[in-house]
Structure formats: C-alpha cells, structure tokens
Design a protein that fits this description.
With 68 residues, the chain is α+β, with helices and mostly antiparallel strands. The protein is built from one helix and five strands. It has one domain: Single Sheet (N-terminal domain of TfIIb), CATH 2.20.25.10. The protein is 29% helix and 25% strand.
Length: 68
C-alpha cells in the first residue's frame, strides 16, 4: 500500500513538472493549470485545454473557449 501511494505522489509531481513545461500551441504562452476543472488555461489565446486521465489534450479544436 505504501509503495502504491509513493508511486502516486511521484507521478503527480512528475505530471506537474511536465505540465509546467507546456505552452499554448497557438500563442506559445505558459499555461495555468486549473486542478478543479482539469484544464490548462491560455489567457492570451482565450482557450482552456482539457486534461483527461492526466494527459493534456493540446489541440486547439479540443479546447474550450474562455473570455480573455
């Protein structure tokens, strides 16, 4: 049980590190991770990219439009 929890925390730290390296494919801006909505927000582009099962979907056509 401890090994499973330890792996989960390592995976979460790795995911946050990887997410921090992503940029919006349109504006090339850094993204803001909204953990509650499971989205990566690109303010300049006005898009929210979904994160499904821990995988960021970085396709503009899959992103939700948000107010700039």
């Amino acid at each position: 049980m401890v090994k499973i929890l330890e792996k989960k925390f390592i995976d979460m730290a790795m995911n946050k590190r990887l997410i921090s390296m992503l940029v919006c494919p349109l504006s090339k801006e850094k993204l803001i991770y909204d953990e509650d909505k499971q989205e990566l927000i690109a303010k300049k582009s006005g898009l929210a990219y979904p994160v499904k099962d821990g995988i960021p979907i970085m396709l503009p056509e899959e992103a939700r439009k948000i107010k700039k």
